[in-house]
């Protein structure tokens, strides 16, 4: 009997040591990330974990607070599309309607995509592209806790506001930081900021800015003209893409949501009387994951002389988003290590089109780098 008890207690001690060791491993190295929305951006992020084992090309920062891009470990994945739900994440990322290219093979990850609640995730025209799975949604907060996720990344389609808020709440309940890549107003909303601050969980967003997409290039160009004393009176930026995101924003309410976010970002560096037009303009299916952006700038410089820029710009959407997300996730982990909760303005200003505190692209990157270096508190 005594022997049995001793065996039992040594097993319990052994189990507890395992738990402690596991938590130590979590703290020291990998960032345990769950993703809501196994779409194109998710596909690029998952593939990057393999790609960057051998490469460093195209990273904004190789090292963020001692963490590399391959320190991001996906531990959970949620979607509603029957072509993705129930499949290993390594296969789900290549299913229709995703159009992100296959950059490298992804071995089985042992993470099955689980069914989330639909809410407004497949509303309107997205019904034509998303095949909603017939199974019942799982308890997301429990799923996140069981997966020991530290961060939940919200990669739902633009316009999925109710569903995005649902995932923010689930992250709060599960004790996860929340990264809102969608334009839904969450990381800029006082109520959400307070709730995450109370639980000492970082909250960043809203609306991911691509590593070098239309908005970043437009903002950077206008900032340069501004610094050189060039007065911009008219400018527009129009996009054409072939992804589900590009299709979704054909719908008026999604288009308006995106247009407002982009216009607000651009206006920061322009005189108030300038005429600005921005917005995703059209969907062409054969473009797939490619995005073409057209920029027009009309301005005046010395002696009132005319300056005109007409620019054609081609990028790939999924990798462009994931390129920035890779930095954001590591920044958020750093904030968690520093026991910070609520809004982290340096991360949001750097990585999102609609942050709580807005500044130029160059300044925002400096804020982020200063935060990482410990020269800024948040
Ligand atoms: N370059 C980029 O990738 C980029 C840049 C800036 C912003 N964003 C934003 O990131 C978000 C994701 O972009 P994407 O191109 O990967 O989108 P996507 O359209 O390729 O994928 C969205 C995924 O969400 C799933 N989904 C829909 N409703 C859901 C629900 N209720 N629960 C779980 N899953 C649901 C869909 O089935 C799909 O798999 C968008 O809001 C977009 O505006 C992306």
Quick one: biggest sheet?
Answer: 7 strands, parallel
Q: What general outline do the C-alpha atoms trace? A: globular
Question: How would you name the CATH homologous superfamily of the largest domain?
Answer: NAD(P)-binding Rossmann-like Domain
Average residue-wise pLDDT: 92
Structure description:
The structure is a single chain. The longest helix is centred in the first third of the chain and has 27 residues. The chain is α/β, with parallel strands linked by helices. Strand 2, helix 3 and strand 3 form a beta-alpha-beta unit. Helix 2 packs across helix 10, helix 4 crosses helix 5 and helix 11 packs across helix 12. The chain has twelve helices and eleven strands. It has two domains: 234 residues, Rossmann fold, CATH 3.40.50.720; 105 residues, Dihydrodipicolinate Reductase, domain 2 (2-Layer Sandwich). The N terminus is likely disordered. The strands form two sheets. A seven-stranded parallel β-sheet has the order 3-2-1-4-5-6-11, sandwiched between helices. A four-stranded mixed β-sheet has the order 8-7-9-10. The structure holds nicotinamide-adenine-dinucleotide. The site of nicotinamide-adenine-dinucleotide has 36 residues, from helix 2, strand 2, helix 8 and helix 10.
């Amino acid at each position: 009997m005594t022997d049995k008890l001793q065996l039992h207690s040594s097993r319990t001690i052994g189990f507890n040591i395992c738990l402690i060791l596991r938590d130590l491993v979590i703290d020291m190295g990998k960032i345990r990330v769950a993703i809501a929305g196994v779409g194109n951006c998710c596909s690029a992020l998952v593939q990057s974990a393999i790609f960057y084992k051998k490469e460093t090309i195209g990273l904004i920062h190789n090292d963020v607070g001692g963490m590399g891009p391959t320190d991001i470990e996906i531990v959970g994945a949620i979607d509603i599309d029957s072509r993705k739900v129930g499949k290993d994440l390594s296969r789900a990322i290549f299913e229709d309607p995703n159009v992100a290219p296959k950059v490298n093979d992804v071995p089985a990850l042992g993470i099955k995509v689980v069914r989330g609640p639909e809410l407004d995730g497949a509303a309107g025209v997205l019904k034509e592209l998303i095949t909603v799975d017939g199974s019942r949604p799982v308890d997301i907060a429990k799923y996140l806790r069981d997966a020991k996720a530290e961060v939940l990344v919200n990669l739902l389609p633009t316009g999925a506001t109710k569903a995005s808020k649902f995932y923010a709440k689930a992250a709060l309940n599960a004790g996860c930081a929340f990264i809102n890549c969608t334009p839904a107003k969450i990381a800029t909303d006082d109520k959400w900021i307070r709730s995450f601050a109370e639980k000492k969980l970082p909250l960043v967003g809203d609306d991911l800015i691509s590593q070098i997409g239309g908005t970043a290039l437009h903002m950077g160009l206008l900032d340069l003209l501004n610094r050189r004393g060039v007065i911009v009176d008219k400018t527009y930026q129009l996009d054409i893409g072939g992804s589900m995101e590009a299709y979704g924003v054909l719908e008026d309410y999604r288009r308006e949501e995106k247009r407002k976010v982009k216009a607000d970002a651009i206006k920061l560096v322009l005189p108030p009387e300038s005429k600005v037009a921005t917005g995703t303009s059209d969907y062409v299916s054969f473009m797939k994951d490619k995005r073409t952006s057209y920029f027009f700038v009309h301005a005046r410089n010395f002696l009132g002389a005319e300056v005109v820029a007409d620019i054609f710009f081609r990028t790939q959407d999924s990798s462009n988003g994931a390129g920035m997300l890779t930095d954001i996730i590591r920044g958020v982990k750093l904030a968690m290590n520093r026991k910070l909760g609520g809004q982290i303005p340096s991360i949001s200003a750097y990585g999102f089109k609609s942050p709580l505190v807005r500044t130029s692209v160059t300044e925002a990157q400096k804020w982020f780098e200063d935060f990482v270096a410990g020269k800024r508190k948040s």
